[in-house]
Every structure is written in C-alpha cells, then in structure tokens.
Amino acid sequence: MWSMEVFQGDIKLAEKFVEVKEYELPLFEVELDAPSHVSFNQEAFLVTVRAHYTFGKPISGNCLLKIISKGERPTIEREFPLIDGKKELSLQLSEFGKKIQRIQINATIQDTVTLTQRTVSKTVSILAKRYLIDTPPMAHECDGPSDTFTYRARITHLNATPVDVDEEIYVKLDVDVNEEPSKIVSYADENGDIEAEITCSNYTNVNITIEYNGETSLGEIRLSQRSNGSQGGVYVRTQK
To answer: Which structural domain range is residue 161 located in?
Structure first.
C-alpha cells in the first residue's frame, strides 16, 4: 500500500492511498473474427470464436453468443460448446432484416475448468453495398479490326481505400448476342485500378461487366470504325 500526500507549505491538502498488486496475465484469451461490413447481396456471413489458455492450449468450455441489433429486432442468443477451443457460426442476413444498420456481436466464453469467463465484442455494419465500382466514360475510334484499346475501371471500399491487390476481379465482355460472353480474371493495382485490353474487331458495341465479391458494375461501350468512315458518336454508357 502506498500513500500520496499533497501539501501547500505545512498544510496537508489531500491524501490518497494506492494499492499496488503484481500484474496477473488473464487465464485465457478470446478472439472473435467477423467482417466489419456485409452487404445485402450476401445471404450469410461467418463468425468464428477462438479461445485458448495463455500458454497456447485450447480451452474446454462453452460460448454464449449474443447478437444485438440496433434496429427493432430482438437480441439473438446462441449457446454452444467449443471444439478444440473453436466454433464457427454462419449468420443469415434474413435474421436481421434487409435494413442498413449496425449489429453488435458479444461472445462470452466460460472455461469449465477454472469456472472463469471472458467477453469480447465486435460491431458489424450491414450496408446496401460494400464497394464503389467506377466504370468511367471513354471514347475510342478503331483504326481497324486488329486495333486494341485499354478500358480502365476502379474499385474502392466505401471509405475510398483501395481493395486488396491479391483478390480476383472478373471482367466479362459481351460483344454479340449469338456468342457466349468471354470472362477473364484480373487484379487491381495498389490504387484499385483495373485494366482490360479489348480488340476492336468489327464490333460496334461491347457490354462490359466488372464483378468483385458479389457486386457488379455494368458498362456499354460503343465503338466507331475509322475504315467505315464513321464521323464520331462514340460513347460509354455506364450503369451501377
């Protein structure tokens, strides 16, 4: 026990006692993994709970999961045993209603050996969409069927930060109603930019679809062929 005293001259103004104890590590640690954002086009999202003693061994215990909706829906409670200190649970978005909101997930782990418990929390935002897929307008006049041009798009998170450069992005080109659309895999650079090389051939219309993690952006590219004496009218119409 320590005491602290405050004096002004010879007059004691205040006194405080402080008890100092040796720091004790928690008996076990809990990790709660869940996405920070999910969107309406997802049917479900995964929640994973892990618990282990401070020396690394998984605990033997139970988990009480509480999902608190910020809307009018009642709190959802699920209780289950941990297997090797772990439990994965798929939560259906239909349980929360198709509504923009934030939900709080609380995971309380009770160790059946020491009879101690710990609680961790995480907030998940349910949004209409998670990404901004920009298919900007462009103009190109083809020099001939073999001429190529580059179509550029950009994908960012809603907070304008770039997406992961290692995640696959699908670029689908539809040039003729009688042909199957071609689909290629691309990747964004560190700024979230995607490039697709397109050959003019004799096309006058190219429909392009950018797909990323279940969200899409559609674009219609109109081409003019210089060899056909076209005087212009080239435009890109985009739709999100």
So the answer is: 131-239
